[in-house]
Design a protein that fits this description.
alpha/beta; six-stranded mixed sheet; two-stranded antiparallel ribbon; 6 helices; about 35% helix; about 20% strand; globular; PGM_Phosphatase
Length: about 190
């Protein structure tokens, strides 16, 4: 039985982590802490995996910057793939989380995200479908290999709920801290979180 591993790696810390919902806004770079986290991720991956076959990354600066040390360590060129981009938060992009948490819609985001579409943006279901398709495409390209995918908290949490086989409304229970690594193993075409 061939096992393929897809590593979902959240970007490192930025100056707005936990304060603002940056979404797909351009120009947000890693903080000094985030750059250190990216270097640590590369070291940890090299200690754990002798080979990574490919690196995919969201097009946003913070994910590309997080992927750079790993690409350097493994001698790979990251492939930019929109499947791993942050959720399109639409009108909520750039807003403070404290302000958003006061909106009536915030309760839907927290309790039943499967029913929510960001005003002028993407739904949680669309985001989950997009990232799962990207993960499965990456896994299919490298059967028996190891693929690193650098992404964002919400797409990773959506993937975690999918591969745990739980409803998308369990989304808020999934964890994807800055510079965290989540491993999805595929065996006989079926993926699961390990």
């Amino acid at each position: 039985m061939t096992t393929t591993r897809v590593l979902l790696i959240r970007h490192g810390q930025t100056p707005t982590t936990g304060v603002v919902l940056p979404g797909r806004a351009a120009g947000l770079h890693l903080s000094e802490t985030g750059r250190q986290q990216a270097e640590r991720v590369a070291v940890q991956l090299k200690e754990r995996f002798s080979l990574i076959d490919a690196i995919f990354t969201s097009p946003l600066e913070r994910t590309r910057e997080t992927a750079e040390p790993t690409a350097r360590v493994f001698g790979l060129e990251p492939v930019v793939d929109d499947a791993f981009i942050e959720c399109d938060f639409g009108d909520w992009t750039g807003q403070k989380l404290t302000d958003l948490s006061k909106l009536p819609e915030w309760q839907t985001v927290q309790k039943t995200p499967s029913q929510f579409r960001f005003p002028g943006g993407e739904s949680f279901v669309e985001m989950q479908d997009r990232v799962v398709a990207g993960i499965e495409r990456a896994a299919a390209q490298f059967p028996g290999g190891v693929v690193a995918c650098f992404s964002h908290a919400d797409p990773i949490k959506a993937a975690i709920t999918h591969y745990r086989g739980v409803n998308l409304d369990e989304f808020q229970k999934a964890k994807a801290d800055p510079a965290s690594v989540t491993v999805i193993e595929f065996a006989e075409g079926v993926g699961r979180v390990v």
